[in-house]
Write a structure and sequence with these properties.
By secondary structure, this protein is of the alpha/beta class. The chain has 3 domains: about 50 residues, no CATH class; about 55 residues; about 170 residues, Ribonuclease H-like superfamily/Ribonuclease H (Nucleotidyltransferase, domain 5, 2-Layer Sandwich), CATH 3.30.420. The chain is built from 11 helices and 5 strands; from the N terminus they run H-H-H-H-H-H-H-E-E-E-H-E-H-E-H-H. Strands 3-2-1-4-5 form a 5-stranded mixed β-sheet, with helices on both faces. Strand 2 and strand 3 form a beta hairpin. Helix 1 packs across helix 3 and helix 10 crosses helix 11. The longest helix has 18 residues. About 15% of the residues are buried.
Length: about 325
Amino acid sequence: MRTRYLIVLNLAEGRSPSETATVLQVSRTTVYGVARRFREAGEAGLVDRREENGQTKVDDDYLGLLYEVVASSPREHGWRRPTWTREMLVETMFKKTGVRIHVATMSRALKRIGARRRRPQPTVGCPWSKRAKNRRLRKICKLLEGLPEDEVAYWEDEVDIHLNPKIGLDWMVRGQQKEVNTPGQNEKRYLAGAQNYRTGELIWVEGESKNSLLFLRLLWELVQRHPEAKVIHVILDNYSIHSTRQVEVSLKTREGRRIRLHFLPPYCPDHNKIERTWQDLHANVTRNHCCPDMASLMREVRVYLRRRNRDTRHPVQTAA
């Protein structure tokens, strides 16, 4: 309605229909239509007439059902295609509600429920039964909830740092496509990190290979940082470097006996709290980075992780 009033005001001040359409970013057809309505009915012709359309089709019940449909797979609704299109959603919702809407209206409905087109996350299903998986997760939760004061617990995982940057989404203006320079010959560094369950502080070690020695260096760092802890609990995934003969022998030493490894169910990264920290690291440092060499990239990684530890109001916890 505001736009219709502005169209009339612009025409009254002598602007042509084309100029008015350009200034207000509408089509000339809209300008001509508004001018005709104003000539025929005066100011009353500018009033929104959609209230005459009857009861709205896209009500709260429709949007609630649409939310559930979008969250599911098209195959669950009889389609052979594995991804949704707006046309498929229109047809599916028509079958479920008897209400048919235009594809453009479906676009607005999707916006109202907060739906977005995004890449799905590739995952591997846990081979354990649901009962066995939940039993292991409950055991870990019980451990953390009843953790004694003289014991500590850490979430542990490794992360790869690539010199060739990870390419991620970024804001760009119309007509622009930003470029990310890549060194070509990739290099890698690896971090083994442990995030304190109580404080959130991060302890990490760096290496050129992701192997059991890197993992053992991290465990030794935890032992050094907690000489008073009766037990150091480490919650981790089932990656092969965590259960080698080297690790087994090291955990039988006097200091190693203070460490208890608690393995998560296979392929359950969402239950390892340190994964979010690595995601933040990629988002803030490695994605679309412009570092020319690995030395400068690792400096950025250390700066970010040290700042993260400071922001959690704890001493810097790093190991070269």
